[in-house]
RNA sequence: CGGGGCGUGGUGUAACGGCUAACAUGUCUGGUUUGGGACCAGAUGACUCCGGGUUCGAAUCCCGGCGCCCCGACCA
């Protein structure tokens, strides 16, 4: 991608209303555009990051047997009335058609997926099964906040599984938990599995996946010796208490952001819809159901919060909009620009995603600052200086370290 | 939803109730320049959020909306 043709431009200052790091940086760098409180448009760079995160999530869900679907976002009110959510859940948007019919736009899909599963799951032989989707969700939040981290419209991966027995559900629950941890790790984050309330879904505990960041809106207590972690709102334990699980460590308190949540839904939804299957004994039985969510856009916000520095965004390679930011200084110099052009083509031939800053009349300082702000992991500089050395300069965004390498060595890294 | 703050060119700011709403940045022209937002000249761009009111006169004061941000509550 030629930067001179990129749809967006950077800006020096963030809109004064934005105080959170993710909103300031993502807007300044041109990744997102705010439409209204809690509703953002994702521009080319932001969209690319979302695609990267989605592909990681998709990969991990596929690995544990999830099958991707795309359920309707515009939904009838009937199933929501059938489960009682229409009146009980206050964040659902309700809309009326011209003919006074009632609809909702999806904020979650239990009411949609359960009747679909009912159509196809007739026998124990059809179980277990897990389907997921990645897409926009809508919640009528009273207060959207923190940039893209809590919106009225956001992107979420939601998976739903159905099982014959509690044991089988527990097995899958554990597998899904591991898959979730891999997702966060691949996104460059450390997430803690946190015991939390099951909300209005279930009496049981649910597990939240929490990333430690000051921008988070949850308080958690976690053990400094084992993996125990609990949402502060459901426990009487306090900071500095001894850990009740390992009896060795002590509990620390921290702000964290919830980037995923998994629930044991039991048989609530199958029961609401009269969804049974024939078990081995030929009897009707309700399947055990689970739901598993990952906030895609929130994850992007948390990465922006947790991994940025004073210069701007610092994307891990796995989710970066481009892998290489090629910067040509002295664009009027024929030798410099042709060397840079050739390197750009060579990288593209190797299948490397490159943002190429070949803008004319833009000072070196401005290009460097823009590059810092956009946060692509690897910067390759072509200038009179590098030409004199017969090498290219590589600078790593995260560490700030730079190295000088030959063209062969540079290209060899991407083979 | 309760409380607080803020609404002025695209962005960030300024302007005592009083002159043609100022400055920076951006954008456009031309020139110069190319290792950390460089420089020169010119140009462009605002119904001062909306609606009322007070006043000879309102960006400025008053009332009512709307919007945005923050705290709290909420959080399928």
UniProtKB/TrEMBL annotation:
<dbReference type="GO" id="GO:0005829">
    <property type="term" value="C:cytosol"/>
</dbReference>
<dbReference type="Pfam" id="PF00587">
    <property type="entry name" value="tRNA-synt_2b"/>
</dbReference>
<dbReference type="InterPro" id="IPR044140">
    <property type="entry name" value="ProRS_anticodon_short"/>
</dbReference>
<dbReference type="GO" id="GO:0004827">
    <property type="term" value="F:proline-tRNA ligase activity"/>
</dbReference>
<keyword id="KW-0030">Aminoacyl-tRNA synthetase</keyword>
<dbReference type="InterPro" id="IPR045864">
    <property type="entry name" value="aa-tRNA-synth_II/BPL/LPL"/>
</dbReference>
<dbReference type="InterPro" id="IPR002314">
    <property type="entry name" value="aa-tRNA-synt_IIb"/>
</dbReference>
<feature type="domain" description="Aminoacyl-transfer RNA synthetases class-II family profile">
    <location>
        <begin position="38"/>
        <end position="316"/>
    </location>
</feature>
<keyword id="KW-0067">ATP-binding</keyword>
<dbReference type="InterPro" id="IPR004154">
    <property type="entry name" value="Anticodon-bd"/>
</dbReference>
<dbReference type="InterPro" id="IPR006195">
    <property type="entry name" value="aa-tRNA-synth_II"/>
</dbReference>
<keyword id="KW-0648">Protein biosynthesis</keyword>
<dbReference type="InterPro" id="IPR050062">
    <property type="entry name" value="Pro-tRNA_synthetase"/>
</dbReference>
<dbReference type="GO" id="GO:0005524">
    <property type="term" value="F:ATP binding"/>
</dbReference>
<protein>
    <recommendedName>
        <fullName>Proline--tRNA ligase</fullName>
        <ecNumber>6.1.1.15</ecNumber>
    </recommendedName>
</protein>
<keyword id="KW-0436">Ligase</keyword>
<dbReference type="Pfam" id="PF03129">
    <property type="entry name" value="HGTP_anticodon"/>
</dbReference>
<keyword id="KW-0547">Nucleotide-binding</keyword>
<dbReference type="InterPro" id="IPR036621">
    <property type="entry name" value="Anticodon-bd_dom_sf"/>
</dbReference>
<dbReference type="GO" id="GO:0006433">
    <property type="term" value="P:prolyl-tRNA aminoacylation"/>
</dbReference>
<dbReference type="InterPro" id="IPR002316">
    <property type="entry name" value="Pro-tRNA-ligase_IIa"/>
</dbReference>
């Amino acid at each position: 991608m030629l930067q001179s043709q990129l749809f967006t431009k950077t800006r020096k200052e963030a809109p004064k209303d934005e105080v959170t790091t993710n909103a300031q940086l993502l807007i300044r760098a041109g990744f997102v555009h705010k439409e209204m409180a809690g509703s953002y448009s994702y521009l080319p760079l932001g969209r690319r990051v979302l695609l990267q995160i989605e592909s990681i999530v998709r990969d991990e869900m596929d690995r544990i047997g999830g099958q991707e679907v795309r359920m309707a976002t515009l939904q009838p009110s009937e199933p929501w009335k059938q489960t009682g959510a229409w009146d009980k859940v206050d964040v659902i948007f309700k809309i009326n058609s011209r003919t006074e019919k009632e609809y909702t736009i999806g904020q979650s899909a239990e009411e949609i997926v359960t009747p679909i599963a009912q159509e196809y799951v007739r026998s124990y032989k059809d179980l277990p099964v897990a389907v997921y989707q990645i897409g926009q969700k809508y919640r009528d939040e009273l207060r959207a906040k923190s940039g893209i981290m809590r919106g009225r419209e956001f992107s979420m991966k939601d998976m739903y599984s159905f099982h014959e027995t509690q044991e089988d559900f527990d097995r899958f629950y554990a597998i899904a938990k591991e898959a979730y941890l891999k997702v966060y790790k691949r996104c460059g984050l450390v997430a803690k599995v946190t015991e939390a309330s099951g909300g209005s879904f279930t009496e049981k505990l649910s597990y939240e996946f929490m990333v430690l960041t000051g921008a988070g809106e949850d308080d958690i207590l976690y053990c400094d010796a084992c993996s125990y972690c609990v949402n502060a709102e459901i426990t009487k334990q306090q900071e500095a208490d001894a850990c009740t699980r390992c009896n060795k460590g002590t509990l620390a308190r921290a702000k964290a952001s919830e980037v995923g949540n998994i629930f044991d839904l039991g048989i609530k939804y199958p029961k609401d819809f009269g969804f049974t299957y024939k078990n081995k004994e030929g009897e009707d039985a309700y399947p055990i159901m689970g739901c598993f969510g990952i906030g895609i856009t929130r994850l992007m916000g948390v990465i922006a919060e947790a991994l940025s520095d004073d210069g701007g965004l610092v994307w891990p390679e796995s989710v970066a909009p481009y892998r290489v930011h090629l910067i040509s200084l002295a664009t009027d110099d024929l030798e410099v620009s042709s060397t840079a052009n050739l390197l750009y083509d060579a990288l593209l031939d190797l299948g490397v995603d490159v943002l190429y800053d070949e803008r004319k009349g833009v000072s070196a300082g401005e290009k460097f600052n823009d590059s810092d702000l956009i946060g692509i992991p690897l910067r390759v500089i072509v200038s009179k200086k590098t030409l004199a050395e017969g090498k290219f300069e590589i600078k790593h965004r995260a560490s700030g370290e730079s190295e000088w390498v030959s063209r062969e060595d540079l290209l060899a890294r991407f083979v």
